[in-house]
């Protein structure tokens, strides 16, 4: 299952991937293309990646998380391509027997992904101009 | 030796393409590769003097000694998510 | 929209309720009927409530949360009735311009709900016996 | 005055029903209501001496003075979620 790619993110199937009878708590994080007052007139964001490396790095992040939260179920996706505002670009699901672990694991994975995945954003504005957004 | 250089996002835009072959003497480092690139004409001369790099998909430093056939990737500041 | 009731929890519509273009981060918590090694052979849990009061208390929890995280979108449900293991019994969705707030708000709402809603559980075991589970 | 008592979960099971009318003198408190209930025969006598209570859907204490028509709910320890 590709962690990084152009396919729309299916939240339901992400939840199914991490669910099991022993895991009573599931946390899903969904990051979407935002257009708020601080963002300017963003129409869409183009996500591009060093795909082979992003896939490998995301896999490693999940491996480390599984080691830290051995009872947890974890799944994640990062979508690539031109995504209009409101569209989910990244999602992480974490389930665990107890909810504190599910919250912590989901939070940890999203923070690591934001920090380490070789993925770039170019904003497209309403007037057709584009600009790279670097952290 | 031959190194495959890959450029992403803003760097690919600067270069006008996302991949090129670079010919370097044996034992050249990542730093040597950057210097060789920046002496070229066109967009390459506008590349930053220091860049985040990966060799064969692993983050590394400028002192890393390259091998023939390596894939050297230049990564603009990350902004995933 | 009833916060407490017998209807299955629709996670997708909960996410839709809290989504908006300004809110780039959404966190969903789903609590499901668990059957783990500590739980014994649980086949199902019957959830019963002081419904009018549970509805009111859950509404208040959301009101306080909206006051604490004014930029957040919040939605929640607690399902009642006999729910087989693996079935979601409670869900909370929180979205916010920044993910830290979405995580905090979702966590706060679920902790308050677990502590304050007048809702009770009776476990049904594989052998047909039943027992009240009190915190 | 007439108070509507409501019982939930284990207490409803003990009582054998989830609602009953209780007739109390004016100014009776929640404590008086509990004492009156526990003197009854059957499941009511097995109710705990102290219980979590709500009057008209608001949590309250045993010292709360009841009014005619109040809904007095007896809540077993909560275990939602």
The structure class of chain A reads alpha+beta
Helix fraction of chain A, binned, reads: 25-40%
CA-to-CA gap between the ends of chain B? 37 Å
Q: How many β-strand runs of chain A?
A: 8
Assembly state here? heterotetramer
Total number of helices of chain A? 3
Shape of chain A: elongated
Distance separating the two termini of chain A: 28 Å
Helix and strand composition category of chain B: alpha+beta
Q: Approximately how much beta-strand content do the residues of chain A carry?
A: 35-45%
Largest sheet: spatial strand order of chain A: 1-4-6-2
- Percent strand of chain B: 25-35%
Main beta-sheet strand count, sense and barrel state of chain B: 5 strands, mixed
> Largest sheet of chain A, described in full?
4 strands, mixed
Give the helices and strands of chain B as they follow along the chain. EHEHEEE
Spans of chain A of at least 5 consecutive residues whose pLDDT stays below 50 are none
Radius of gyration of chain B (Å): 12 Å
Question: What is the residue-mean pLDDT of chain B, rounded to a whole number?
Answer: 93
Helix coverage percent of chain B: 10-25%
Biggest chain-to-chain interface with counts: A-C, 31 and 31 residues
Number of strands of chain B: 5
List the helices and strands and how they pair.
The complex is a heterotetramer, with two copies of chain A (135 residues) and two copies of chain B (81 residues).
Chain A: E1 4-5, H1 11-18, E2 25-32, E3 42-49, H2 51-68, E4 73-79, E5 81-84, E6 88-96, H3 99-116, E7 119-125, E8 130-133
Parallel strand pairs in A: 1-4
Antiparallel strand pairs in A: 2-6, 3-5, 3-7, 4-6, 7-8
Helix pairs in contact in A: 2-3
Chain B: E1 2-7, H1 9-15, E2 19-23, H2 30-38, E3 52-55, E4 58-60, E5 71-75
Word description of this protein:
The complex is a heterotetramer, with 2 copies of chain A (135 residues) and 2 copies of chain B (81 residues). Chain A contains 3 helices and 8 strands, in the order βαββαβββαββ. In chain A, α2 (51-68) runs antiparallel to α3 (99-116). Chain A has helices spanning 11-18, 51-68, 99-116; strands at 4-5, 25-32, 42-49, 73-79, 81-84, 88-96, 119-125, 130-133. In chain B, a hairpin with a 2-residue loop joins β3 (52-55) and β4 (58-60). Chain B is globular, with a radius of gyration of 12 Å. Chain B starts with a strand and ends in a 6-residue tail after the last strand. Classes of the chains: A alpha+beta (135), B alpha+beta (81). Chains A and C meet through α1, β2 and α3 of A and α1, β2 and α3 of C. β2 of chain A pairs antiparallel with β2 (25-32) of chain C.
């Amino acid at each position: 299952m590709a962690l990084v790619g152009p396919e729309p993110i299916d939240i339901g199937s992400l939840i199914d991937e991490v669910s099991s009878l022993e895991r009573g708590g599931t946390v899903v994080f969904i990051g979407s293309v935002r257009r708020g007052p601080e963002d300017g007139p963003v129409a869409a964001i183009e996500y591009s990646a060093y795909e082979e490396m992003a896939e490998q790095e995301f896999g490693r992040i999940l491996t480390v998380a599984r080691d830290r939260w051995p009872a947890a179920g974890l799944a994640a996706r990062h979508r690539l391509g031109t995504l209009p505002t409101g569209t989910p670009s990244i999602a992480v699901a974490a389930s665990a027997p107890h909810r504190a672990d599910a919250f912590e694991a989901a939070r940890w994975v999203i923070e690591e992904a934001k920090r380490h995945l070789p993925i770039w954003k170019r904003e497209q504005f309403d007037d057709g101009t584009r600009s790279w957004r670097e952290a | 030796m031959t190194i495959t250089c890959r450029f992403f996002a803003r760097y690919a835009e600067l270069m006008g393409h996302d991949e090129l072959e670079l010919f370097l003497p044996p034992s050249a480092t990542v730093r040597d590769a950057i210097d060789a690139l920046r002496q070229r004409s066109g967009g390459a001369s506008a590349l930053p003097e220091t860049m985040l790099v990966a060799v064969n998909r692993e983050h590394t430093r400028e002192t890393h000694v390259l091998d023939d056939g390596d894939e050297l990737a230049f990564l603009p500041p990350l902004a995933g998510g």
